[in-house]
Write a structure and sequence with these properties.
By secondary structure, the chain is of the alpha/beta class. The protein starts with a strand and ends with a helix. Helix 9 packs across helix 10. Helix 4 links the parallel strand 4 and strand 5.
């Protein structure tokens, strides 16, 4: 079972998302928080596999929660939930460590698929949404580590990076390429090093920014 924790200040939204998730026999909602301050305390205690986090909450926003938990090294794989078409906020959330985002009117299949992808180590930063997000990168490029790699990505590394951009987990990539999962992990580590980034999401953003994929 994939353990999910919900954070949203709107009771109806939490109830709606919980009801959707409970239709899946692979997911268990283990807790809820009505605000950021509660979430900051409860998430480390519950240790969920995936957090569904509202970004716009009074007092302590979802972005504040992301930054605080990430700074403490206690941020589980997190999906941003939003009703707003707000690229800058979503980009800030991804830069703070979120694995992607979903709109709150998401379908059951999309929601369950997203939770399973993130729980498996994947990312929701797919080309369709990244194209729009990249428009916001113009003003924050200096916040990425400078690209300074003596060796370019190999053909296999580029292939794996493209699959990462599609939101596939290491296990799914390994199955697709017919190699061991440990081999994929080694390639991913090399990719992060060469791109000068610290996680998969930033690697995908960096790759799109540089036109690698």
């Amino acid at each position: 079972m994939i353990k999910v924790y919900l954070v949203d200040d709107q009771t109806l939204v939490r109830q709606g998302v919980r009801s959707l998730l409970e239709l899946s026999d692979e997911i268990e909602v283990i807790g809820e928080s009505p605000d950021g301050n509660h979430a900051l305390q409860a998430i480390p205690e519950h240790q969920p596999d995936v957090v569904l986090l509202d970004m716009r909450m009074p007092e302590m926003s979802g972005l504040d929660v992301l930054q605080a938990l990430s700074g403490e090294g206690q941020l589980p794989p997190t999906i941003i939930l939003t009703t707003f078409d707000d690229d800058s906020l979503v980009l800030a959330g991804i830069k703070a460590g979120a694995k992607g985002y979903l709109l709150k009117d998401v379908s059951l299949d999309e929601l369950v698929g997203a939770v399973k992808t993130v729980a498996g180590g994947g990312s929701l930063v797919r080309p369709a949404v990244t194209e729009r997000l990249l428009k916001g990168l113009e003003g924050v490029r200096t916040e990425f580590s400078a690209l300074d790699r003596p060796d370019p990505l190999t053909d296999r590394e580029t292939e794996i990076l493209r699959l990462m951009a599609g939101g596939y987990s290491n296990k799914e990539i390994a199955n697709s390429l017919g190699v061991a999962e440990g081999t994929v992990k080694n390639h991913v580590s090399n990719i992060l090093s060469k791109l000068g980034v610290r996680d998969r999401t930033r690697a995908v953003l960096k790759a799109f920014e540089l036109g690698i994929v």
